[in-house]
Structures are given as structure tokens and as C-alpha cells.
Amino acid sequence: MTLGITKGLHNWRTQASTVERITDDAAYTAGHPDDTLVLAGPPRKDVAKEEATSGWPSLMAIGMLQGFQFNSQKPTQPMQAIGSGRTYFVSGKSQTTWRLGRLFCNGRNLLRVLYHNAVAGGVKIQNFDDKPVAETANDMYFINLDSELYYIPMGIAAIFRDKAKDLIGAVYLELCMIQSYGVGFNAGQAMIMEDVNGMCDRVLPWHPTSVCKLDGTVDRKTMDEVIGFVGGTGLPTSMQGLNKDNNLADQSRD
Q1: Residues 178 and 199 both lie in one domain
Q2: Judgement on whether residues 2 and 41 belong to the same structural domain of the protein
Q3: What is the mean pLDDT of residues 145-171?
Q4: Are 14 and 107 members of one domain?
Q5: Phi, psi of 126 (to 5 degrees)
């Protein structure tokens, strides 16, 4: 029996329906770290370039990442007024923190990758009073958070795709500033990790135009039709022709 979709209390059937959307395609439409890309770039999304142009460096993919988290909090204060037992709320601007963890290896270290935009843009880091490098701007190892370099904000982007190569979503962390950098190691461990923590002004939705299906892959429409969905819409064949007012059609790709 083809499963239905529970959109509300009127059609809630625990054994005959899934909730909100059909889940038969969940294995290839769910997000996965393998299909997520993190990039470093300029501090504002509007000036980020997906490909390098004259005078503008491109976004740079960050490899060897073992962890990426960002967390947004919105300060909210509960209030009450004399004469009422009900609570209301006042709220301020959201505050976002982020963290990157990466394998420590030969080549650009994490601080060097994050400041790719500054170096590629021509900032003369060797002329700072507090240098972030030992020799020249070509050094791959950046350190020394007292350097004037780390007063320059940067941006971090993340792109999420599914196993069918469809874009799930993308975010751009604007005006990122580093708060801490750390490296830790112990005898007997298999690797050394480096971690960077910071804050940003805001997290914005982003739509990278260059993210597309790879040549030679099986397209999403074909994959959906194989498991009985109509025309790659995520709607089971048995539901074809149902009135959209029944809130059944807007489930898998709404």
C-alpha cells in the first residue's frame, strides 16, 4: 500500500502515512557532511566571487575539516506589566558564534586559509608591526593573533547538497572575527588538530549559482520515478490528480 502524508490532525494515520512529506527518498535527499563544502572569502556576501576575476579573488574551499559549527542566539527578555499575569517579550539582535576544527598538516594552516581573501587581495602582511608569519607573505603557517591582520574581518560560506546533487541550502557568515586559536596534542594520538573560534555579524541565506549537477550523474527526476514518484515531484503515483487544496502535493520539495 502506498503511504499517505499526514499534514494535520484530519489525516493522521501512524501506520499508513508519514508526517509532512514522503520519506521513501530520504536516503538520497538528506544532507550529509560528504556533500557539504565550507569556503573562506570576503566579509560580506554581496562582494563574494565564486570565481576569480580581475582584482577579486575567488572563494577558497577549506579542506581537511573535521568539524564546523555555528550557533545563533537572540537575546530575549521576558517582561510583565502591573495588573496582568501574562508575560510578553522584548528581543534584541541575534549573536552568532562559530567554530572550525581541522587536521594539522603541511601546507596552509587554518589561520592562513581563513585569511586567503586578505592575502590574495594584496594586503602587505610582512609590513605589519606584529607579523603573522616568520618570513614572507608566501609562508603557509600563520599565527600571532596580536597581528594587525586579525583586525581585518573575513567571511565563511557553507553549501549543503544531497546525494542527488540538489542544492539543499547555503549560508554566508558575514564579518567574521577570530576570538581564539588553539592546537592540542598528546602522546600516542593519531593526529594533531587545530581549532579556531569566532563571532560574526549575521548569518545570511546564500544561493551559489555555480552549484549544479555533475555531468554523467543520474538525475533526480529519474531516481524519483524509479521508486514510484510522479515526474520527479516527490508525489506517489497513487496521489496523481489529487486536489492541491488537500495539502498533499507540497510535501517533498516544498
Answers
A1: yes
A2: no
A3: 93
A4: no
A5: -75, -10
pLDDT digits (tens, 9 = 90+) for 51-96: 766 656 689 999 999 999 999 999 999 999 999 999 999 999 999 9
Q: Is the pLDDT of residue 104 over 70?
A: yes
Amino acid at 216: G
Residue (of 182, 155, 166) closest to 39 by Cα position: 155
Closest CA to 238 of 28, 16, 8: 16
Handedness of CA 1, 242, 162, 17 (dihedral sign): negative
Task: Judge contact between 33 and 67, C-beta under 8 A.
Answer: no
Q: How far is residue 144 CA from its own chain's centroid? A: 27
- Give phi and psi for 78, each to the nearest 5: -75, 140
Q: 224: which 3 cell numbers?
A: 524519483
For 4-37, the pLDDT digits (tens) are 889 999 989 999 999 998 889 899 999 999 999 9
193 and 246 in a single domain? The answer is no
Paired strand residues for 157: 39, 172
